[in-house]
Amino acid sequence: MHDYRSMVELLKEIQALEFGVYELALFLDTHPGDRRALEDHNRLVSRLNQLRKAFEDRYGPLRLDSESPYPYRYINDPWPWEIQY
Amino acid sequence: MWFYEKKLQYPANVRRCDLAMAKFLFAQYGGPDSELSAAVRYLTQRYTMPIPQAKALLTDIGTEEMAHWEIIGTLIYKLTEDATPEQLREAGLGDHFAQHDKALYPHDAAGVPWTAAYIQATGDPITDLHENLAAEQKARTTYEHLISLTDDDGVIATLSFLREREVVHFQRFGEALMQVQEHYQHKHIFC
Amino acid sequence: MTRAENMSKGYQGGMRLAEVYIPIQTYGETFDLKNALMYGTIFPELYRPYRPVHRNPQ
Which amino acid positions bind Ca(2+), per UniProt (chain B) (predicted)? Predict the structure, then answer.
C-alpha cells in the first residue's frame, strides 16, 4: 500500500511535467521561432525523460517501446482508469 | 503512428458513485461536441492543411483530445463502478445497461450513438479552422453545464481542467487561422 | 496605400473586413508545473476559471 501511494505520487509528478511539455509544444506549433519557449520546452523534456525512466525502472513500462523485465510487465494492473489519484 | 502511454493526462478522481452524473458525462464521451468528435475532427482535417504550423497543431491537439476522451471514460467508469442494474435503471441508465452493461459505448447523454455527421472536413483550411474555433467554444459551454450539474469536487476539478484546455486550444486554432489567412494573402499577391 | 485604396480593398483600421483576427500570444511568465496541471494551462494570460452560477436552493 505504501508502495502504491509512492507510485501514484511519482505518476502525478510525471503528469505535471508532461503537461508542461505538451502545453509548450502546442505553443511552439504556432511559434516555431520562439527561442525562449523552445529552451524551456527542451529543459522540461530532459527532466521528463529522467523522471519517466525512474518510474519505469521501479514500477514497469509506461509504453510498449520501453524495456521490460521478465515476465512482460507492461500489462500489469493498475491501468490508468483504475488508479485512485 | 501513435504509442499509447499508460497514464492519464490528468489525475481524475471521483468522490462517490453518482450514476446521474455518469449519464450526463456521456455528452462529452459520445455527443456532438464530445472529445471523440474533437479528436476525429482534427485528425481528419490535418491532411489538407496548407502550412506546417497547422498540420502540427491539428495533429497535436487531435492527439490531446484522445487523452481527454480517456479522462471522460475514466470518470464514467469510476462513477458507475459499484452500481447494480437496479440502481442504473433508477438513474435512467437502464437502456444503456440493456445494450451495453457497464461498457463505455460512445453515445451522448440521451443515448444517441456517436456519428461522423457531428464533424466536418471541407478541404478548405479557413473553413475547417473556423469550425474548430466553434467546436472549442461548444465544448467549453458543455463543460460549464456539466460543472453546474455536480457537487463532487473530484469531478469538478477534472471538468475544470478539460474546460480550460478548450480555452487554450481556441487561442492556438486562432493563431493557426491567422497564419493560414496570411499564407493565402501572400499566395494571392505573388502568384 | 491611401485610405480610399484601403477601403476599396476591404481594409479598415489595418484589418480586412469579413476576416477573423486573434492576437498572437507572446511568451511571458508561466505557472509552476503543479499549479499548471491543476489550472489546465501553463499560461497565466490564458487562465479563465469558470465560476458556476449557483443553483436556487429548493
Answer: 60
